[in-house]
Amino acid sequence: MRSVTSAAVLALLALCAAPCTLDAQSRSLEQLLDRAGTYVDQFFNQFANVVAEEHYLQEAEWRGEPTKQTRVLRSDFLLVTFPGLNGRMSFRDVFEVDSRAVRDTGQADRLVKLFGDAPPDVLRRAREITEASAQYHLAHIETDPFVALGYLQAVFRPRFRFQRGDDSGAGPTVSTVRFEERQRPTILRTGADKNLTSRGRIWIEEPTGRVLKTELLLRLERDSREIVTTYRWDDELQMHVPSEVRESYVTPPSVVRGPTFRGVATYSRFRRFEVRTEQTIR
To answer: N or C terminus: which one in the chain shows less Cβ crowding within 10 Å?
Structure first.
């Protein structure tokens, strides 16, 4: 009788302890996400109005085509904040394709100069430069290093379910957090205005909330796209910056001449530029 009673008590204690453990894990995850959210806000504030040189190797194969196409682009890549602009916007100005200049020498740093002068139509002109640069990209796919990073911001967090991931293998103070978008419509949409669901993993330094790496998986029916961004320390800016972006894109077999795309973008020559504040974007 005594052993049965002891077993019953132990079982009861286990049942009572389980919710407490889950609550503690939940609180620990929320605290980690809070630290990471604070870090991301600081990152975007510090990285705003920075230009980098992007080296972008692209490879693409089209279903039914015998050869693979490769391309190497060099571009100015900017992340801009501006009075009256809701959030931040990135712009890209391709100046070299496969070692061939596609921009006049007099147009060097034209995006930086454009935002420095801040004419009334600055946003339209910056978009035109970015859209013109898109013609050089294989499969019309352009990378954005910061999409998954932005999901940690307070405005987006309620849209996702976050869970602790497996051992990250990146060190004892680094944890992985899995995320999956739950709300509709989704943050990202296709040209056909269809939901593009986001899920993936984020590597976070526990004590500081610093993000070391993000992995973003995008799904639309049977299409799949993966974007992996890693970060490194930059002595000039005295902050962590995007180091490399690896991405892939695969279309389903039903898509005639559907592309399989792979790209690797690396970033260097980070430097700040000034944006005039006399005018606002409306």
So the answer is: N
Range of the structural domain that residue 143 is part of: 26-272
How far apart CA 42 and CA 83 sit, in angstroms, is 18
pLDDT tens-digit readout, 175-191: 999 999 999 999 988 77
Helix (H) / strand (E) element for 122: namely helix 122-133
Q: From CA 128, how far away is CA 4, in angstroms rounded?
A: 77
What separation in angstroms does the CA of 277 have from each of 50, 81, 263, 271? Answer: 16, 10, 36, 19
Residue indicated by tokens 């602009």: 85
Kindly state the helix (H) or strand (E) to which residue 197 belongs, with its residue range: strand 195-205
In a domain, 48, yes or no: yes
| 218-257 pLDDT, tens digit each | 987 667 889 999 999 999 999 999 999 999 988 777 777 7
User: Does residue 10 form part of some domain?
Assistant: no
192-212: pLDDT as tens digits: 778 889 999 999 999 999 999
Rounded CA-CA distance 51/53 in Å is 7
Domain count within the chain: 1
Residues 58-93: tens digit of each pLDDT: 999 988 778 889 999 999 999 887 665 556 788 999
277 domain-assigned: no
Task: Give a yes or no: residue 19 inside a domain.
Answer: no
| Half-sphere exposure in the Cβ direction for 103 (13 Å, CA) | 22
CA angle at residue 241 from 238 to 246, to 5 degrees?
A: 160
pLDDT for the residue 139: 72
